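Chain A, query sequence.
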Amino acid sequence: MQTEDIRKSADAAEILRARAWFLGTRIDVRDLERGARLAVGPLTMLVGPRGYSLIFRFGVVVLIGLTPAEETEILERLAPSVQNAFAHPESDEVDIVIDPDRPERFDQTGRLSLTEATAGRLQVIAQVLAKSCVLGYYERSVGEVFDRVERLAERFCQGLGPARDKKEILNEIGNVLLILTRTVGRVEVTEKPEITWEDIELDRLYERLAYEYELRDRDLALSRKLELISRTAETYLDLVNSRQTLRVEWYIVILIVMEVILSLHEKFF
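Chain A, predicted structure.
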């Protein structure tokens, strides 16, 4: 009986769908800010009677309460402003149930309950979705880097040419630095958004959602993987450099021996 009451209550309540897309490394919002806006950081604009568009400079857009056609239109409109657009953008979504009689938390069906759909609450949800989306993309990217580093190790053990290995290892170190710069410097996964600093309710909501999406744990795991990749790549790079140094030393020894032989030949013959 209680389950039926909950289901009826969810059906009667207003439901908004929030979708997040990690489109590229950055979104230029300067031209977009000329339109009607409700807030900045992220750039928040009202779309239609009840929809919202929240655009983050670090490459994520979160659309709330829009139809698929409206979402497609906004994504197409944003495309020219996206820098280094991804071929396969990462996405995340959640259904939001607006019901003043239910506690603000996730229910058994995976829906998030809110007492009211204020701009502040929706901004907090957008912040968490955006960070989760970025983490998901780089978690997948780090997995691919792990595979490439493993192949480099196998090639090194097989004694393949060091010049090509050195270039690829430098690329992997560069990829690690890029991921660290974008997740720590731009996204600030572990930092609370400014909107929660002076609002206790929004702060509690953010903490609850950050815990549900495991933002801190995922960020810590990602940092550890990046550190391991960096140490492994640097170790291989040192080995490659040592191998090249040893080869140069052998060249020098051979030249010295040849010079001695030529000197002896001139002396005796």
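The helical segments are 2-12, 68-78, 119-157, 162-187, 200-212, 215-268. The chain has two domains: 2-117, 134-268.
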